[in-house]
Amino acid sequence: MRWLLDRAWLVLYAGSYLAGGAILHLSFRRADDPIIRQQLKWLRNGVFAGVLPFVALYAAPFVLGLVPTPAMRLSVLFLALVPLAWAYSILRYRLMDVDIIFQQGYVYLLATIAVLGIVSLLVLSLARRDELSPTAVVLLVLVAGFVFEPLRNWIQQQLDRYVFYKDRYDYRVTLVGFARELSSEMDLDRSLRGVGERLVNTLQVSHVAFFLADEEGSGFHLHSTLDREGHPRTLNFSALDLSFLSTPGQRPYLFFESTRRAIDVVSREMPASVRTTIAELDLTYYLPCVFRGRTLAWMGVSRTAKGDFLSSDDVELLQTLSGYVAMAIENARLYSSLAAKAEQVERLKEFSENIVESINVGILAADLEDRVESWNSRIERLTGVPRHAAVGRKLSDLFPAEMALHFDRLRADNKVHQLYKIPLRHNAVNGNGDSGRETLVNLAIAPLVTKDGQRIGRLVIIDDVTERDELERRLVQADKLSSIGLLAAGVAHEVNTPLAVISTYAQMLAKQVHGDEQKSKLLDKIAKQTFRASEIVNSLLNFSRTSSTDFTDLELNRVLRETLSLLEHQFEKAGVRVEADLAEPLPAIRGNAGKLQQVFLNLFLNARDAMSDVSGGTLRVTTVVNGPSVQVEIRDTGPGIARDHLDRIFDPFFTTKTARKGTGLGLSVTYGIVEEHGGSIEADSRPGEGAVFRLEFPAVRKTVHA
User: For residue 284, what pLDDT is reported?
Assistant: First the structure.
C-alpha cells in the first residue's frame, strides 16, 4: 500500500508540474504584450527544463515499478532549474517589483504585529482573560479590522519617507500635484523642462526625452532631452528614425529591454535605422501622451541611474503623468495659436491704422448715432480737434453748423455723396485760438457696412482743397490773361494804323487853319484824343508782350518813394493823406524798376479814386521783411470792394469805376507784372472798411564768401 501511495503521489506531483507548464505555454501564445510574452517564455522554459528530465529519468521509471537507483535520484537536481529560471525572469524583467513585494510584505508584517499587539493589550486589560464572551471576541475582531487599514497606511507612509525612498519621497508626493499644475503653464518649453527635471529627481532615471507630433500629423520629432544634470543631451536630431512611435493601440507603452544591442522581441523585426535610433536615444520606456483620443507626444524615460528597471508603481505614475503632459501640450499649442492669431490681428489693425494715418485726407468713422469711432491725424490738423477729444462725440458737436446740416440731411441715405468746396471753420473745441481760420474741403459721405451688408455707420472723407482752389483760380486768371493778351495784340496792330492816320491828318489840318482859333482847338482835341487812344492800344500791346525784360537788383523802398512823389500833387488835390512805414534796411529784390513803378502807380491811383468818392481818406504803405521775401501792404480807407467783385478785380476790362475813368486793364497789367517778378498779389476788403493789397517779392540771397 505504501509503495502504491508513493507512486500515486509522484504521478500527482509530476502531472501538476506538467499541467502548469502547459498552462504557461497557452498563456504565452495568447499574450500580446511583448514583456509578458518574454516573462512567460522564461517561466515555461524553466518549468519544462526542470520537470521533463525529472519525469523522464525518475518519475516515469518509478511509476512503472523500477526501484530508484543512485543515478535516477540525481535527476531531482533538474528541478532546481524551475526556481532559477523564475528568479532570472523576475530579476531581468521588473526587478523593482520584487522590491515592492518585499516592501509590501514588511508593511503588512509590521501592521499585523501592531494589530496583534493592540489586541493582546486589550486582552491583557481584561480581568478574566480565560472566559472571553462571544461579544468580546467579536468586538476584538472588529477593532482589529478597523485599526488594520489606517495603521497599515501610516506604516507605509513612514517606511516610504524614512526607509524606502528617503530623499525621493517628497518628489513622488509632489509629482502628481505638479502634473495638475501643468495646465496653468502656457509656455511649452518651460512645461516640458519642468516635467523632465521632476522625473529625473523623482525616479532617479538617467535621462528623459519628449517627442512631439508634427504639425501636419505625419509623425513625431524629438523636441528636447535632458540628462541627470538637467542639461540637454547632444544628439543628431535630423538622423533619428522615429517611425516606431506609432499610435499605441492596445499597448499602454513601449518597452525596450536592451537598447544598445536591440535584441528585444519588440525591436527585432524593426529596420536597421530604427534600431540605431533606439540605441542612440537609450530610452527604455516610451509612453504616449494622449488627449481626446489623439497622441500629441511621446515621453521617453531611461532606466535608473543604477541601471535598474522602473517598478510597476513608477510606470503607473508615468502613465498618469503622461495624460497631464498631453493636456499641457494641447493648452500650450492652443495658447500659442491664439497668441499668433492675436498678434496677426494686432498687426493687421496696426497696418490698417498706418494706411489710414498715411492717407493725406481726413477720415472719420461714425456709428448710427453719428458718434465718432475713428479719427485720423489728418482730420486733427484740419479741425484742430485731437483724437481723444473727438472719439465718442457727435458730428454736430465737432463741425460747424453749416457742415452739420449736410450730415443731418444725408443721415438716412445709403448712397455715396460728394460735396464740393464746403467752407470749414475750426471749431471752438480745439482751444488753440485758431477757430477763425477757414479752409475749403471736399466731402465724401459713404455708408459703413459689414460683410453681410448691414449698415453700422458712416464713413466721412474730408479733403482739403484750399491750395488747389487757389491754384485753379490762378490758372483761370492766367487763361484769361493769355486770351486777352492774344486779343490785345491783334487789336493793337489793327487800331494803331487808323489812329496814326487820324493823328497825321489832324496835325496837317491844324497847320492849314492856323489862323482859325476855333477850328485849331477842335483839331487839337482830336489829336489829344488820338494820342489817348494810342496809349490805350500801347497798354494792350505791352500787356500781350512776352519778351524778356532786364532785371536788376533794386531797393523796393526807393521805387515806392519815387512813385509816391509823382502822385503827391494829386493826393493833395483829392484830400488823401499818405502814411509810409517803410522798414529799414530792406533786402534787395530782383526786378525792373519801370514795371514795378507801373504796378504801384496803378494801385495808388485806384486807392485815390476810391477815396475821392468819400471826400478823402488815408493811404497807408508798409514794407516788412517776411522770411526770405519782402512784403508790401497798401491799405486805403475807401468804401472797399464788394465780396462778389473780389474774385474778378484782376480780370481784364473789369472795373467798378464810372464811365471814362478807367479801362479795367490796370489791375490785370499789375497782376501780370507781379507774376513776372516771381511774386504774388492778394486783395482783401470788407465793405465800408477800405481795401488792402498785399504784394510779396522774393529777396535776393547774398553770396557768402569764406
Answer: 86
Helix (H, G, I), strand (E, B) or coil at 321: helix
Q: What confidence score (pLDDT) does residue 34 get?
A: 61
Q: Rounded to an integer, what distance in angstroms lies between the CA atom of residue 665 and that of residue 646? A: 15
DSSP letters of 482-541? HHHHHHHHHHHHHHHHHHHHHHHHHHHHHHHTTT-HHHHHHHHHHHHHHHHHHHHHHHHH
454 CB neighbour count, 10 Å cutoff: 7
In whole angstroms, give the CA distance from residue 207 to residue 262.
18
Instruction: Please name which of 477, 536, 526, 533 lies closest in space to residue 505, comparing C-alpha atoms.
Output: 526
State how far the alpha carbon of 586 is from the alpha carbons of 75, 564, 631, 674, 679, in Å. Answer: 137, 18, 10, 18, 16
Q: What secondary structure letter does DSSP report for 230? A: S
Name 623's bridge partners.
Answer: 582, 632
Helical residues (DSSP H) of 550-624, grouped into ranges = 556-566, 568-574, 593-612
303 falls within a domain: yes
Strands 617-626 and 576-582: parallel
Give the residue carrying C-alpha cell 482835341: 525
Shared-domain flag, residues 330 and 427: no
Tell me if 281 sits within 8 A of 288, measured CB to CB. no
Which of 68, 93, 118 represents a domain boundary (last residue)?
93
Range(s) of the domain holding residue 474: 470-544
CB 305 within 8 A of CB 206: yes
Starting at the edge strand found earlier in the chain, the sheet holding 372-375 runs 372-375, 362-367, 455-464, 438-449, 417-425
Phi–psi pair at 303, nearest 5 degrees: -70, 175
> How far, in Å, are 274, 558, 562, 570 from residue 565 at the CA level?
111, 11, 5, 10
**Count of CB atoms situated within 10 Å of the CB of 687:** 11
Which pTM does this prediction carry? 0.44
SS3 657: coil
3-state secondary structure of 298: strand
Reply yes or no on whether the pLDDT at 632 is more than 90: yes
| pLDDT band for position 480 (cuts 50, 70, 90) | low
Using alpha carbons, select from 267, 279, 219, 226 the residue that is nearest to residue 243. 219
Regarding whether 417 and 383 lie in a shared domain, the answer is: yes
Beta pairing, strands 294-301 & 617-626: unpaired
DSSP state, 184?
A: G
